[in-house]
Write the structure tokens for this entry.
Amino acid sequence: MIENMSKHNKTSISEFPFGQLSDGTQITEYRLENKNKISISVLNYGGIIHSIVVPDINGEFADILLGYEDIDGYLQDRSYMGAILGRYANRIADSSIILDGVKHLLPSNDGTSCNHGGTQGFNQVVWDSEIIYSEDDVALVLNHLSPDGDQGFPGNLEISIRYTLNQKNELTVQINAYSDQKTVVNISLHPYFNLTGLSSVNIETHMLEIKADEYLPINDSMIPKGEKRTVSQSPFDFRTLASLGSRLSKQNPQLKLAEGFDHCFVIRDSSNELKEMAIIEDPVSRRRLTLSSNAPGLQLYTGNYLNGNVPGKRGAQYNKWQAVCLEPQHFPNSPSEKSFPSTVLKPGQEYNHQIRYKFDIAN
């Protein structure tokens, strides 16, 4: 273990070996811990957030993320557990994009769609890592160059992702990218939250609020096709806190298609500024997460396809509805839908996505 402490605050960052790949590449776990003993650990493989340890109402600390004990679990994983999603988070219909009249073919790894960047997405990249100290904080920065043609996407794309844990118990993830050709970019994160800290308990009692009046209905290929539908008088109405179980139990054609929630919500505030998107809390532990981002959409996924195939932390079997994912992002299938906000990145432009997770105790 290697540990460093910033001279300017009580945030520390430690490095631990986390195993190695078949080619001998060493994987490292970086653990950030603030003065309140809240800790976040990130792997340089996939930029995976491996654990988030926070207290409950009684001051008892627990890890609120699903994940795996070692690198082998993440290598076998097909659920994008905790990982960076890219180049394009979520689905692109027909596994193709058209830019300036040129059709670019992408891998079909979800039926006829390209999902989360293709068969070799950012979740499988070993990222270059750097620890950066500033006057106010310490950060882990991961960098990667995705070459022109990677998974069919045009342009050499330079990506930098900065993880910062502050003394307000906020984890900020700053994502920036630049391309030397016109391309599409939509990068997000995929942590699986269970605020009980007990991986054997599902998330049906979790209370959720989403700052959205509309969501994007999907077809039988899990693809939105341009329609925005009101959440009013539907299981998708999370405008005030409601339990996930009370909504998952509803008979609804959209929920039946996805076997739960796997839908993008249209955030009410359409600005490009950082804004609060969602609040989720566990009524027993009273742990609460407030999620903010500058993206236009939020994908809500309730772990519908977890099937216990890969043993999780402490040998747990992760099954359906055992976690909830809140993925701030651009809308799925935006490259094919002109009515959706554009995800095109041109040379000279900066892709800028900020995500903030704030952890506290609900009243």
